[in-house]
Amino acid sequence: MSRRTFPLSLDGRSRTVQVDHGYWSARRVVRVDGVEVLRVEPRSFRERIDLWQSSTEHVFGIDTHRLALRVRPGLLTYEIELVVDGRSLSDGLPAGPLRPPAHGRYSYTWFKVGVAGAVFFVYQLIVLGLFGPIARAFGGPRWVLAAEVAMDLAIPVLAVVLVILAWQTDRRGRNVTVALAFLALILFAFRGTAAEAADLALPFDEESVAFAGWQPAPMDMRRVTFVGGPEVEFANFVKVRFRRLEPGAYLLLRGHFSRLIVDMQALSASSR
User: Fold this and answer.
1) Which of 241, 243, 262 is nearest to 148 (CA)?
2) How far is CA 44 from each of CA 27, 50, 51, rounded to the nearest angstrom?
3) pLDDT in tens, the chain (272 residues)
4) d(CA 139, CA 136)
5) Running DSSP on this structure, what letter comes out for residue 98?
6) Is 15 exposed, middle or buried (0-12, 13-18, 19+ CB in 10 A)?
7) Which CATH architecture has domain 2-88?
8) Measured between alpha carbons, how far is 154 from 176 in angstroms, rounded to an integer?
């Protein structure tokens, strides 16, 4: 909260105008000789953002005199000007029209996009740094799959949020078209996520395999190919260190629709 005090003489009387301006709250309070005569307080966050980025004039009176408080956003600070009967108190010259802000108006939509991005970042930190490791260390295969779904759903949900935000912009047609194209691309890239989510409600498929080793690994470390067999994909948080397994008989636990492997257990001689 910044405070400016303006001493002035009106009709032979000394008066004191005190202006309080909240940098973050955008609240403006004017007192004349200690008595509050004007209060401007945003009623919503949207209104607060408008006050942050707009030059404003707030009119009040002292006896028969017309005064105006002008607030102009600068690059990092605000310019506070008091106008008395059409003349600036700082230089005594006619005040003229209200000057525009030092910077252009920034879009409220970009602020919401920033908030959505921050929430997405925190969510990913929680999944990758907390939920996933806990599922790997203490949970069973279903927890491993749940962590996989939680991670894979983040970007599609963010893309849906961007479509909603694009609908709220002034250039709705163009922005919604771009957002929908981005959503379609994301849904294609994460097309297996719906199958993974459906697998959470179904029993896992069990498949016995004679494991002889893996072929040389490609760039995608979760996709591997059995020697003399098919390519398979493991969940990100799978507990077993599948690349270090010795040859032998194993039981694969896989999602019914996604075919994602959530566990690979060695079979005992009696269960083969």
Assistant:
1) 262
2) 12, 10, 11
3) 789 999 999 998 999 999 999 988 999 999 999 999 999 999 988 788 888 888 999 999 999 999 999 999 887 789 999 999 999 998 899 998 998 888 766 666 777 888 999 999 999 999 999 999 999 999 999 999 999 999 999 999 999 999 998 887 777 889 899 999 999 999 999 999 999 999 999 999 999 999 999 888 665 678 889 998 899 999 999 988 888 899 999 999 999 999 999 999 998 765 55
4) 6
5) P
6) middle
7) Beta Barrel (2.40)
8) 20
Residue that the structure tokens 């996989």 belong to: 148
HSE at residue 174, side-chain half, CA atoms within 13 A, is 3
Q: Which class does domain 205-271 fall in?
A: mainly beta
Helix segments in 65-140, DSSP class H:
108-126, 132-138
Joined together, the tokens standing for residue 153 give 């759903």
For 4, residues 6+ apart whose C-beta sits below 8 A from its C-beta are: 18, 19, 21, 80
Alpha helices in 91-214 (DSSP H): 108-126, 132-138, 141-167, 172-189, 193-199
| Bridge partners of residue 66, in order along the sequence | 61
- Its sign, for the CA torsion 212, 215, 221, 224, is negative
| Separation of alpha carbons 121 and 239, rounded Å | 25
Sequence-distant (6+) residues with CB within 8 A of 270 are none
